[in-house]
């Protein structure tokens, strides 16, 4: 047994070990998506694969790592996992992600006993998927790249050159891909070293009992928080723009959330089936996104441990968009980024004072690639853009921050993108009037405009353009995300998810969504509306049209008389929430 003080010391040692893994990864990765954006998921797990410490990056990766490690134990058996082994897994239905998000993990042994695992998941650049960069229109898993079903990269400490040669000869960018995978290995070896050191200091028995206590404590915290939530059952729907194949078919996501004394159940029955394109989710990813929302509603202030999620149950229909089965395509995982807010939309019906309105709703990602004329080498750079968060009972939504699915992430700086690619960032800033009006305003989105200086490919991953970010309690919807090619010209095209072949001089604008508003816009303090206008979040015209506030643009003051008259007019009666 481990006493409470020793357990707490071990808990912090594990957290420090996970953070050291992340720092090691960022120092050694080749890919800016990893070391700039923090597109990773890192965990230390007990012998059953349950996470006991993580280093936050992509929030849905951590629980997905749990699922992958557990499936690997089931497939191989613990007895076949030897000290010094390092594995790669990217079979989507076990790994809980697409093929370019491989899970690399290593077992941890102490005196011959398996005591835990270290895991690291990142986005790598190329594993022979049918299109360079990203796949938007695959119809089965066989066109989505090389698949590794729990394959040893290192066997008892010795590198398996055969596996690395397969990767080398099947990747369009072998040096960076192998470099990133080796960075994952390095992170896992660091985790093995740190967990082994804890076991050497305190003994394997005390470490194991401490990890069990950590997860039991995480469960107790979650159940205490669950007991404070309202009881009930609520359903909500939203759509993904398309599946990338049937472009005119919006894909329905439906969640029914039930809160009882014992558990929260998220039931995805009623979500779309027969989805041909690659937006289907592996089951582990569905569990991961539900876990993110459950964590946010119950224990947001403590580190992630598997025990936090014992009161959560997820129900899916095999073969549906929320539960892919082989060989269903899964490459474009944007469903997993959008679906979390469907759960929040359901909860908002029963607990609007606890849930924010919808955010801009999308991880609006732009990926550019081609041959760099400065070097003659292949290049690929990407970034996810910030969105506006939804207004909530406590105040306005945040302006221009990373989507809720990636709270540990950042975007790629202008200087990095321009240095490493033939792209010039022409403008970058907030989008006025994109936040939904309300007593508490939705946060505004951002716009980044790229000019390509050589022939390139621009891949846009934006899948919430057909439905607006929803409000709460009489607020107004936020503005939807969109991509605009060659804005302001006769060749202008407005679109969402797309694979674009661009000529030198072409311009691409990535415009993200704003959050929904909370409460009646006419109840917003006119001085706060004035501050929004002065700061560029709301235009003078929208102040009048949406909030009934008349701003004197000459003196930058509120015209009180005109505002009172406008707010009392028939055209500015409060609207009901959709």
UniProtKB/TrEMBL annotation:
GO molecular function ontology, one term from the record: 5-oxoprolinase (ATP-hydrolyzing) activity
Stretches that traverse the bilayer: none
Domain Hydantoinase B/oxoprolinase, first and last residues per copy: 3-521
Signal peptide interval: none
Pfam family, one: Hydantoinase_B
A single GO cellular-component term on record: cytosol
Gene Ontology terms: biological process: glutathione metabolic process
Matching InterPro entries: Hydantoinase_B, Oxoprolinase-like
Protein's recorded name: Hydantoinase B/oxoprolinase family protein
Organism: Phytoactinopolyspora halotolerans
């Amino acid at each position: 047994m481990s006493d409470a003080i020793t357990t707490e010391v071990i808990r912090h040692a594990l957290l420090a070990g996970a953070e050291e893994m992340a720092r090691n990864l960022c120092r050694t990765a080749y890919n800016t998506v990893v070391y700039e954006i923090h597109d990773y998921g890192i965990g230390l797990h007990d012998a059953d694969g349950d996470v006991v410490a993580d280093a936050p990056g992509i929030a849905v990766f951590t629980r997905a790592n749990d699922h992958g490690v557990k499936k690997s134990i089931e497939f191989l058996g613990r007895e076949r996992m030897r000290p010094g082994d390092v594995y790669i897994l990217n079979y989507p239905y076990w790994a809980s992600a697409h093929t370019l998000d491989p899970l690399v993990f290593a077992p941890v042994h102490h005196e011959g006993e398996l005591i835990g695992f270290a895991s690291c998941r990142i986005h790598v650049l190329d594993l022979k998927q049918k299109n360079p960069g990203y796949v938007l229109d695959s119809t089965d898993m066989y066109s989505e790249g090389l698949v590794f079903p729990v394959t040893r990269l290192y066997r008892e400490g010795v590198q398996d050159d055969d596996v690395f040669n397969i990767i080398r000869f099947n990747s369009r960018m072998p040096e960076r891909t192998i470099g990133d995978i080796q960075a994952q290995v390095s992170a896992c070896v660091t985790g093995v070293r740190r967990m082994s050191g804890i076991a050497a200091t305190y003994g394997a028995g005390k470490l194991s009992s401490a990890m069990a206590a950590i997860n039991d404590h995480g469960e107790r915290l979650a159940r205490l928080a669950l007991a404070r939530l309202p009881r009930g059952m609520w359903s909500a729907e939203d759509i993904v723009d398309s599946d990338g194949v049937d472009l005119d078919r919006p894909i329905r996501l439906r969640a029914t959330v039930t809160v009882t004394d014992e558990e929260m159940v998220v039931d995805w029955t009623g979500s779309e089936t027969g989805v041909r394109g690659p937006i289907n989710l592996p089951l582990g990813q569905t569990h991961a996104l539900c876990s993110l929302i459950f964590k946010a509603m119950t224990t947001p202030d403590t580190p992630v441990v598997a025990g936090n999620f014992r009161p959560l149950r997820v129900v899916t229909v095999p073969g549906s968009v929320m539960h892919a089965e082989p060989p269903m395509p899964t490459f474009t995982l944007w469903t997993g980024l959008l679906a979390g807010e469907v759960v929040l939309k359901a909860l908002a019906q029963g607990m609007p004072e606890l849930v924010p309105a919808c955010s801009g709703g999308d991880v609006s990602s732009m990926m550019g690639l081609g041959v760099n004329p400065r070097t003659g080498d292949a290049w690929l750079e990407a970034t996810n853009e910030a969105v506006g968060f939804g207004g909530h009972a406590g105040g306005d939504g945040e302006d221009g921050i990373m989507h809720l699915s990636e709270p540990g992430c950042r975007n790629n700086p202008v200087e990095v993108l321009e240095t490493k690619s033939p792209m010039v960032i022409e403008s970058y800033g907030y989008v006025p009037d994109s936040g939904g009006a309300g007593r508490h305003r939705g946060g505004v989105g951002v716009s980044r405009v790229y000019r390509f200086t050589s022939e390139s490919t621009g891949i846009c991953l934006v899948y919430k353009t057909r439905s607006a970010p929803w409000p709460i309690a009489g607020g107004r919807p936020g503005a939807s995300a969109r991509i605009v090619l060659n804005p302001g010209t006769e060749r202008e095209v407005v679109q969402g998810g797309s694979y674009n072949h661009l000529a030198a001089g072409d311009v691409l604008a990535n415009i993200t969504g704003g959050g929904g508003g909370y409460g009646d816009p006419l109840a917003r303090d006119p001085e706060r509306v004035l501050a929004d206008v002065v700061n560029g979040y709301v235009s003078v015209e929208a102040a009048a049209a949406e909030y009934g506030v008349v701003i004197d643009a000459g003196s930058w003051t509120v015209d009180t008389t005109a505002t009172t008259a406008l707010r009392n007019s028939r055209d500015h009666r409060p609207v009901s929430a959709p």
